[in-house]
Amino acid sequence: MKLVLGYLYPSVMSQYGDRGNVLTIMRRCQWRGIDVEVDNLEVGDRVDPRRVDLFLMGGGADTHQRLVCDDLLNVKGDDIRRAVDDGAAAFAVCAGYQLWGHYYRTATGHELPGLGVFDAHTVHRAAQTGTRLDTITKAGSVRAVGNLIVQWGSQVLVGFENHGGRTYLHSGAQPLGRILAGGGNNSEDGFEGCVYNNALGTYLHGPAFPKNPALADYLIEAALSRRYGSVALEQLDDARETSAQQRALQQATAKSARWRQLWSDGVG
Amino acid sequence: MASGAAGRLATTTTRAAAVNAGKTVRFTSRALGRGGGTALPGRVAGRIDPGLAASLARGLPNGCVLVTGTNGKTTTTRIMAGAARAAGFAVITNPEGSNMLSGITTALLVHANGLGVMTAPASAIGIFEVDEGALPSAIRALSPRLVVITNLFRDQLDRYFEVDFIARLWQQALSALPPSTTVVLNADDPQVAHLGEDIQAKVIYFGLDDRQWARPTLEHAADSRRCPNCNHDLLYELSFYAHLGHYACKECGWRRPDPRFAAWRVQLQGVEGSQSQVTTPAGDRLLQLPLPGLYNAYNALAAAAAASCLGVDPDLVQLAAQSTACAFGRFERVSVADRQAVLLLVKNPSGFNESLRLVLGGEGLRHLLLGLNDNGPDGRDVSWIWDVEFEACAGRLKYLAVAGQRANDLALRLKYAGVGDTSGGPETVPGEPVEDMVLAFFAALEQTPPADTLYVLASYTAMWALRRELVKRGYLAPFYAPGRDCRSVTT
Question: Measured between CB atoms, does B157 come within 8 Å of chain A?
Fold first, then answer.
């Protein structure tokens, strides 16, 4: 079997260790004897909807979103939508997630049109409140930054969020999960992410796949099942993955108070 | 008139109260053994009198210099301060880790008298390291004569959010500088170099002109591949590390400015240091440095360019560079009985990559301990380790251990990097993750034969916890002690 991974804008939309998601898909396939080909889809590159099994799009700043938004919509848009409607898997994170909705209104009020795969829209908190982001403190005050823990079916997903945009799902749109800790979509309704067919959108950085192998495997399985009929993946030894996830969960819920004390003593 | 005098009196009283409160906090903090008391005194004093830092800075006869950037600001500040001292300046500087305005205020108020007036000698100058995010407020408060920016890399995105945001903050801050001031910028970093466009301050560039250190492609940790002028792709003729190199925009024609201070024929002498030929307006000089790596060669070059703006001869920079003791966890050597270790602080992907390159350089297998915490100063988001090229460690290690609060994340990252994968032949498998950095250190040291060196690469608070214990046991000097030398204390 072979899986073709379409990595959208690797040179522009890849902050926060997004490359770790690509690496995780490659390794988890390789360990099972599944070949992986990675297509780097930069600005100007066209998408073959029959070729790509799994799309990945990572995070970036407002300026990066502005750079790719036109290309995403006008060069790749129709083919990505066609592939997703046909059952291709997709994972869009943060800035990527925002551009897969209907539109994203940036901190300065610019409206960037999106793919519309997810029935949702995003507005930067600064645009909602009319805050001018001219200091670090002000920039921090409008962002959701911290550990993000999500109930996804029977699984718990761990990650880190860092975004100024607030995403609102339209009626009928299905969220990825319920928030156990963090802000998620909009810090208001208790939901995180969005699901359409086999496409998932989320604010989970971390990167998400290494510490949530069930999520990675879910997408690999969905991607392969579209091409090869129902595929059941071989179980891997995920002891490292599970212990890292557990550790992250502990850290997120109870940061060592003792350490904070030591630190404030020492630095004054 | 009367009201004016009363107003002035009130200000003077507040100022004196602020200085005295700050000094009391500092004294108490030290007497209680609560560390250096480096930031709190300034914070308390600044709360009482928000204009204190500005007033004290105005009392510096030779003004002040601010040094910022993602990597290298501590070392650059140290070399510069050493050169200025050699040239006869009485240098007031802030200890590392206290690079917010409060830390600078503490450093200043120590030199004020009970009336809140600066009593520094006529030769006094302030040379301060400043946090990237604090540069705008530091420029407003201190009206520096000179600002030095080393580079801009992705670092602690949970604190700084986006690299572009810092670049915008800096641009706004620098545009407020008057024509009488000077800005020293890295020509090889596109976003930093571009800060020199359209500002009133005089701009001096430094950069590397040595083809032998160019790498074929940009690394993944490169943050700036776009033209800061027009947002199109930058073409790199040479790429040194991360996004530092010789570049030009094929669209608008904006290109790397020619540096007045250029290093060429750089010889890296492994972990011992480096030597480079430096072109300066005062002629060519040889710059010998006891600190290793290309990134330290950049720091020395930045210091040379900045020092010359103060009228300090490049020869004195050479003298200062030669005797610069390493900063906190910057290639700090430790001896414990017959065992040797070297401590390297790692804060971001580009710095981590450079440290790994340094440690793995040359022949032989290495002993390595990696430490990762996720407290505020480390960055609460540990995703950045996925942008570090750990793949380079595969097959190069004899011993590998992971420690710290997020040791499990390191172990996982190494698994996906193929380090410890024995399917391809013999390979060092990392030990089980250990939270306690100190335990892990002594266990690792036991596994390191006397003829070898244990390399410790750790994030800020993981390194801090380890150093704290090494100081307690007498293997290292505390980093806030006056006149401290971080070279090893042998027992």
Answer: yes
